[in-house]
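Here's what a typical entry looks like (Fumarate hydratase class I):
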Amino acid sequence: MKQFRDSMIALITETSANLPSDVRKAIADAVGQETADSRAGLAMSAITLNIDMAVDNVGPVCQDTGMPTFFVHTPKGVDQLAMKRDIEEAIVEATRTGKLRPNAVDSMSGKNSGNNLGCHVPVIHFEPWDRDEIEVKLILKGGGCENKNIQYSLPAEIPGQGRAARDIDGVRKCIAHAVYQAQGQGCSPGFIGVGVGGDRTSGFELAKKQLLRYVDDTNPDPELAGLEQEMLEKANTLNIGPMGFSGKSTLLGCKIGKSHRVPASFFVSVAYNCWAYRRLGVIIDPAEGSITEWQYRSDDEIKRMAQGEGIPLTGREVVLKAPISEETIRSLKVGDIVIVEGEMHTGRDAFHHYVMHHDLPEDLDISGGIIYHCGPVMLKNDDGEYRVVAAGPTTSIREEPYQADVIEKLGLRAVIGKGGMGPKTLAGLQKHGAVYLNAIGGAAQYYARSVEKVTGVDFLEEMGVPEAMWHLQVKAFPAIVTMDANGNSLHQQVDEESFAILEKIGKE
């Protein structure tokens, strides 16, 4: 199959940059549910604009391309070892050209391989079938939504739902809680795959396989079909909304599968996927390795998604340019839209851990500055300088153990991320005069266009591309204040309100 490697490069590129037809329709329907000038409406506007930009730039819809996971069906006699080698070569090439972010990190040393190859990476599931052609499906599921996967062992007490037994009502309670707990940290509005039964491992695999179904299909099991529709409707009453800003669009798809289990166990496994629902499939000619058919594409696909200008500039926004004064920060309140100009610095998990134990280099004073929770996709130009390929925010809650201390140590005035942070950070913002700014999760192209120049990088060799501290010069970078220096948090408010609704659902 001489063309198989190139076919896999095409599959990876399209999956990273071009959302499937059914996902596009679901997102377009969600846009119509939100008021255009609300926080939810602005988020959806940025999302749809970002989808178009990714296609135009042939760049990642979201900078976090996750752990590439392939599901391959092959007829008898196909050389699966050769296919595995070709897939790995395609992964390396797609990483080199910036279609994938280098995400393979050694779990013990923390070293990034730099090419997306490593122990058990990429993930490839081979299964035989009785058809003559080869089928390859690929899903790119980012770490933020992967972290919101959740598994329940029934019977159990489910927060906000009460006792969940080993029956359909128990499954119902698990699904409701799974959507609630994702909040904006999973880049809502999202999609969920649910696996009922199996063991701990096969249950999660079954859940993830449900994400390979079409958004608008109907479950062949009438009982599960009814539950899918019921939970989709109930989830959208939680008022979590896009990015956790509150709103009517929280869940865009619910797919449930079941498998047999042993008598001792009853697992309900939920795979949460963000709005950037990147999965495509191809049918391959087993002789040449060429693509004969694309899956998840339709002739009536919505080609252009943008419904608005993202977060439009009205002239009433507050401009933040480092170094920022405490007075300016104290004047901001939840809901304000800010525009960042000038210098900002990326900093994620490895950076925060480092700062807790070391000082920054003497020539790196970022007091009064801005840290951006972002693991960008970067490429080096011929002149040796780096350029940003994709640069949306990562989920901030992972930095909750460190953030308040890092704000104090570095003298920060603003933290940009997605999904919000917890009580320790909120107290730190109030004490030290800083704010949390929520950028639109997954909008990697939308924010990449705001970066005028990469002015430098620290810790690249030690931490790898996603975790390095990149120094960026930005222009017209929009975000929304969701945690202010006066003790107010939109995320806390939405969480409390949605939990109250969750409790009502549990009593129905």
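The two ends are 56 Å apart (CA to CA).

More examples are in the samples folder.
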